[in-house]
Specification:
Low-confidence stretches: 1-12
Number of domains: 2
Strand order of the largest sheet: 1-2
Distance between the termini: 28 Å
Number of helices: 4
Largest sheet: 2 strands, antiparallel
Radius of gyration: 28 Å
């Protein structure tokens, strides 16, 4: 009996295959590929009187079918991301660019959150005097932003990130994949 993975290519389509459905399916198929890979490792040798439940050939065929489907899905998703566009601000950008913009915005938010914005006077230890007593001096710090300005910058970035997320979500549920 042959283990068979049903693919989108073979099943009747009640709903169009969108990016969102393709991503979910790719995740499922990726799990099956891992399962078949693990199963393959158990079918290559066995004790003479204890044949494995699955044969190497049938498992390899199922593995190959799953890998082929996964490659098809990932290619279709990449093609759709490279060609479908959304309007972001005054520009029309591809989904691929929107995805990369999202990653860059997340990185920028993290960067801005980690900026040191010391301001004001601070008494700092500078060493010891001749009698081994600690000595201090007052240092005045200035920063490019106040904490409020940083918060405003981060909120602006989060708003752009949210807009991109909504645009991608909508596009993922409406953009059809070509397999």
């Amino acid at each position: 009996m042959m283990y068979h993975i049903q693919s989108f290519k073979e099943e009747p389509m009640s709903k169009p295959l969108t990016i969102a459905r393709g991503l979910r399916r790719a995740k499922q198929v990726q799990g099956r590929v891992a399962e078949m890979r693990a199963r393959l490792l158990t079918t290559t040798s066995w004790q003479k009187d204890q044949k494995p439940e699955f044969t190497f050939d049938e498992t390899l065929a199922s593995f190959d079918a799953a890998v082929d489907e996964l490659v098809s899905l990932r290619t279709a998703i990449a093609r759709a991301n490279a060609t479908a566009t959304v309007q972001f601000g005054d520009r029309s950008i591809t989904l691929a660019e929107a995805i990369r913009q999202q990653a860059e915005l997340k990185g920028r938010i993290t960067l801005f959150q980690s900026l040191g914005l010391r301001q004001g006077e601070e008494r700092v230890h500078v060493g010891y005097d001749e009698r081994s007593r600690p000595t201090h001096e007052v240092v005045v710090y200035e920063a490019v932003w106040t904490e409020r300005q940083r918060a405003e910058q981060i909120e602006g970035l989060r708003a752009r990130l949210e807009t991109l997320g909504e645009l991608l979500e909508e596009a993922n549920h409406t953009t059809r994949l070509e397999l």
